[in-house]
Amino acid sequence: MNSIIQNIKNRRSIRKYKDKKITKDLIKEIVETAQYAPSSHNRQPWNFTIITNKAVIDDLSKDIKSWYKSIVKLSAPLSFINEVKKSVREMSARAKSEKDLFFYHAPVVIIIHAPNKKFFLQDCSCAAQNIMLAARSLNIGSCWIGFADIVLNRSSKMKKKLGIPSSHKIMATVALGYPEKFPNKALPRKESNVEWVE
Ligand SMILES: Cc1cc2nc3c(=O)[nH]c(=O)nc-3n(C[C@H](O)[C@H](O)[C@H](O)COP(=O)(O)O)c2cc1C
12 CB under 6 A from ligand 1? Predict the structure, then answer.
């Protein structure tokens, strides 16, 4: 197996980070790989908001927590629907925890956002994957935080605080940091979803 394939297979979502900063040069190197992602018509619709200020990350996490708290309250009457019940339980656990179960105390959060154009979701997802893989190759852990994407897309107040244009869609929020440890085993992968047409 070559080193790129090995790196892809070794990437894991990391939810426990060391209290250690990532240098600006390394962050730049990682983000540059995102700028080399493929994009439809080479439009490169992505924009990167890179947050390295701990107070800003903590504040964002608090805002996200209170957003989920209010959603949990609002959706409680619909908890008889199994799907709603499941998400309410998950949102509630994260919102009520003393810990930061959104960014996991990661020292860096990168928000990828773009104006609403054709294929921008695919373009930005390629960019996000490059960030996560480049990070792994530098022994830096990452986790895509979809819980944050959901809230940021619904809160013009939070976008404004971060200087993200209100017309932009949040496509991916990625936490980065040195992991406590890289799990040595991947979560099980499905094998039955490959069909050959030969
Ligand atoms: C679009 C997307 C959203 C995700 N959102 C979250 C999230 O909010 N919190 C989290 O801890 N992990 C999140 N993840 C990570 C997944 O849980 C993880 O990729 C999956 O369980 C497989 O594990 P692995 O990344 O270690 O291979 C997200 C991943 C993707 C692609």
Answer: yes
Residue whose token pair is 């200020």: 53
Q: At what angle do helices 54-75 and 82-96 cross, to 10 degrees?
A: 140
pLDDT, tens only, 171-195: 999 999 999 999 988 999 999 999 9
pTM for this entry: 0.95
- Which residue segments constitute the domains of the chain, with CATH numbers given? 11-53+104-177 (3.40.109.10)
Measured CA to CA, the distance from residue 15 to residue 141 in angstroms comes to 9
What token pair was written down for 48?
């990167």
146 close to ligand 1 (CB < 6 Angstrom): yes
Residue 147 beta carbon below 6 angstroms from any ligand 1 atom: yes
